[in-house]
Records
---
Amino acid sequence: MIGNYLIGLREGLEAVLIVVLLVAYLTKSGRAHLLPRIWAGIGIAVLISLGFGALLTFGPRGLTFEAQEMIGGSLSMIAVGLVTWMIFWMAKASKTLNADLKSQVDQVAEGSVIGLVLVGAFAVGREGLETALFIWAAARATGETWQPLLGAFLGILTAIVLGILLNRGVLKISLSKFFAWTGAILVIVAGGVLAYGVHDLQEAGLLPGLHYLAFDVSGVIAPGGVLGTLLKGVFNFSPATTWLEATVWVLYVVPVMFLYLRTVFAPKTAVRG
């Protein structure tokens, strides 16, 4: 639940900030009459994201166990790829996001109605689809039902409240530090989702080594206990992990974390005059 709360908070805050920037720019530039087009695009993005989440949840039902595991494992890996791209993209694009959005608005503001609708839909839809897929994959990894959805909903709700407070100047936080640290945590969460995706493919018979365990600490950390549930909910940690799962986790988390921290926290080079 906590991991999904973090996903909902981060992705939701990204989407909310984009909406705030779009609305503020149109209002300040004297084009408030165009706001319904932006809201229409945002509404379309939300509906598509919800529909995508419903398709992921109910689509695989009725298939064989092996087919469900194959689909689940494959989509988990896609989700990890998307969230990895997202955290690196946000680390680089956050500095020019405001200017890029203004440029897109200026290009289509005086054109057809569909132009601004698409700007709103694409700006928010990317985060929506990524969130739906990653939350679905994380929920499968934890083996829970409603709790991951509740965590994601609370995270999105918190993001909306923070966005409103930031827009009104009531709250001031360092967004760069927020996205930097949450991105680092998401690398670990994504590593757990990737490992579980590998486990799904092992159960589907597509990957070997299902019965070769790297470690089994179920006797110390009970899967249904408080600690086991907490570790599973936050980091998708499994007390019984196969060698392939453990290897994939290390091969993903270590280099990705290194590259991400170097990207985010690298010292700025001084500009010589």
---
Amino acid sequence: MNLGELGDFLKKRRDRIRPTDVGLPSGPRRRVPGLRREEVAQLTGASVDYYIELERGGGAQPSEQMLAALSRALRLTRDERDHLYALAGRPLPLRGGSAAHVHPGMLDLLDRLSGTPAQVITDLHVTLVQNDLAVALLGPKVPDSGMRASFVHRWFTDPSSRALYPEEDHAHHAWTFVADLRAAVARRNPDDAEARELVDDLKVRSAEFADLWSRHDIAVRRDERKRLVHPELGTIEVNCLNLVSEDCRQRLLWFTPAVGTDSADKLDLLGVLGTQTLAPDRS
């Protein structure tokens, strides 16, 4: 661990990022073009004092979650992300885990979709990053790591996760989750431990999953019309659109109102309601 080098690296990367690059207003009277320390703290969910201490080369060793947040806030390339982890003395996270690297270009697109719910997930349905409207619509991503970070895992092991969809749609979504997961697992290396452990655990814990998995159905989730249940606004019918990364490991999802419904008005209200009434674990 080299906290002195880490602090200097963070400062240099902060200096090159403009507020508009990360979805923040530029504001008047900026003495430098880069981000302010308090803006990086805001983007990462850290306290200002903690981030200042990091740049000064002091404080405790940053956690894997904090390093992932810093990588995204500062729009680090994969090589820069790897360097950050090395300076912090942390092993690189799993490619598909909740701290996985997100391409800066995909993060830039996410920032530009400020008027519609959008998020980046992995091919195993682990939520990596969300905009505010996605949090308001779907709930914040769960803090869990490992298999429980996958929404597919929670779908088949935690009945409360299904409250996101109307009950009459559950069978359809169960089938599509499994068919999409089988396609994702097939794209990965046959020895991929993360995918194998997820499937093996679900086959033991869920008879429904085991039955669906045994059918060998394949159906990659692309564009889809679905109904979502919001605790305040009721059922919202949306089109779920996908932009897939080059290696197919990540997807940028965004949600638009379905034509012929009142969903456009409800999504407008969503921005007003925000996340005040939402319970966690609806991601």
---
Amino acid sequence: MTDIATLMAALAPTEGVNPTHLKGVHVFRGSQYGARGPMCYSQGMLFVGQGKKRLYLDEQTFDYDSHNALVMTVPLPVECETFASPEEPVLVLMVDIDLVQLNHIIRLMDEHNQIPKDLNESRQSGYFVVPTTEEMDCSVFRLLQALQSPLEAKVMGEALVLELLYRLLESPNAAPLYALSLSHTRLSRVEKALSYIHRHYGESVEVDTLAGLVNMSPSAFHRCFKEVTASSPIQYLKKIRLTRAKELLQAQRLKVKDVATQVGYESSAQFSREFKRYFDQSPGDCARQ
């Protein structure tokens, strides 16, 4: 193991997502190969200490590993494949993006005339992959060191997360992060609509309502939404509902019809059909796992 992987392993004693002493920071451990399947990635930065993950989004495929960090500028439903084994588990540091922190750094960079001049709108997708640098690795290492201690995490953790975010903003692929902070960009408008969807997915959500929320025409909103998320608004909403339903079935052991209603389906039969099509298993089988 590298030093970074060793520190991640110490913070992730159990399979899956492990909390740390710092809010918004987790470490994932996976000790076996995971076949391609749907899941939802949160808005955040992901740094791999060991192993590899492959994402499938629309017709695109990309990997992130110890040499390439993944940044999700908005929460995105994707398909994921995990390359790991008991001898070499995949280890991933997951750091939520705090928009207050992001805005603070970008405001300081603007004061020092360090905002890139070529923030091409066409590059403002909901994610980007960036090759890790020595500076990024050092920032990750120091953050992982601090997370070993509750006191150090409390004293230094937030500053180290700020440093890590700054290192990403220095990368040539970081245009989407800047766009997220600027109110007039397509990405920031879509992000506002996505926040609304995640708060209200159990209710009736209309595309016209979302478009009006961000001051766009329905046609322009639909086009921009697809560019950022690789899904239409209705497809995105459906994936979020089904992902949340899977969490409820596995964690709370609720009845299928109750879960269907809770995530916004009027028909439990339609819910069951779409759930099986998306996850390749019935809601009942999922609940029994």
---
Amino acid sequence: MSASSESMPTPSSRTASQPSAARASLLSWLGVAPFLIFALLFLILPTGMLMVGAFQDAQGHFTLNNIVRLFDDNILGAYKISLQISAASAILGTLLGLLLALAAIRGGLPAWIRPTLTTFSGVASNFAGIPLAFAFLSTLGRMGLVTMLLRKYLDVDLYAGGFSILSFAGLTLTYLYFQVPLMVLIIAPAVEGLKDEWREACESLGGSGLAYWRHIALPVLWPSMVGAALLLFANAFGAVATAYALTGSSLNIVTILLYAQIHGDVLHDQNLGYALALGMVLITGSANAGYIWLRKRSHREAA
């Protein structure tokens, strides 16, 4: 009886533990408070303002005219070009990033290659905007370094062949500078999850290298690859500073059109800009939702 009574918590000990648990919970909420405040100020409230402003006119009255105007030929064309550039850079970035990750992690290269690639990817995936546009203009512009070297030493004139850094191909190539490193960072954990035992088991059963990739490796990597491609698509679709600094108004993409509607002197229509932004939020939100779902699925399969 005495032993059992000693093992049971007394009312005073339970009362003392409650304030301790409350303090721990309060400290936890204080720790996450900066993130919640940041999300509220820079994500939730701006998105709410976009949703409200998209259904208002200049006088603040309810209207559907802004949504209807999204189907004008000029705006639909801007969305089409933006979707095409985002899809092209996402697909190429996914393939090139996957090959780089496989070479660095599974290719048997020297040990220093992997940390070097990871460090570079962490920096390059965040290098965008005006500095990136200036770098590509200085490299592949009409008077850029690479353009002049090719013309002088190999007698290759990129611009005579139809290439332009201010075109669809030029902007897609520029986006690849941060898309490929981002893909390396995303897909590296999935590549690491490929176990050597799987290849050994395939070879012991008479399977070739092609059979291993077709029936084992690619099915395991597929959810992560598609999810990463969706994230790269959303990343490119929302890019504005790089495109604006590189092409100006020579390429009609939705981010530049949005900038002109909100801050421009000629096409200024703030509520139409809100509607354009709302359409972008829906597209990028759908891509991010698909990425999150596929990421959870790949984690379940890996477990």
